[in-house]
Amino acid sequence: VRPRPTPDAGHLGDCAMAKYRCPGCDYTYDDTLGDAHEGYLPGTPFKSLPEDFTCPDCAVRYKEDFQQIDD
User: Fold this and answer.
1) pLDDT tens digit string along 17-50?
2) Which of 60, 63, 61 is nearest to 46 (CA)?
3) Which terminus of the chain has a lower count of CB atoms within 10 Å, N or C?
4) What's the gap between Cα 56 and its chain centre?
């Protein structure tokens, strides 16, 4: 008997979730949580955000400026 997947299992897949921090203001994007206010559902990987993504807090830093951080 195969176990049933949880509702999020298909959405999150097998990819590792990570966190990314804006070096300008310390806003942190967490892949696991997403950012509902900005329209990014939980489980949305930072790498899949648009290339023109800017920090929603300071609006100064771009996606390529964000640094991956450890938990």
Assistant:
1) 899 999 999 999 999 999 999 999 999 999 999 9
2) 63
3) N
4) 13
Lookup result for tokens 């990314």: 20
Strand order in the sheet with 19-21: 28-30, 19-21, 67-69
Side-chain-facing half-sphere of 20: CA atoms under 13 Å: 23
* CA separation for the pair 17, 30 (Å, rounded): 8
This prediction's pTM: 0.75
Sequence-separated contacts (24+) of 59-66 with Cβ below 8 Å = 60/24, 60/25, 61/22, 61/23, 61/24, 61/25, 65/22, 65/23, 65/24, 66/20, 66/21, 66/22, 66/23, 66/29
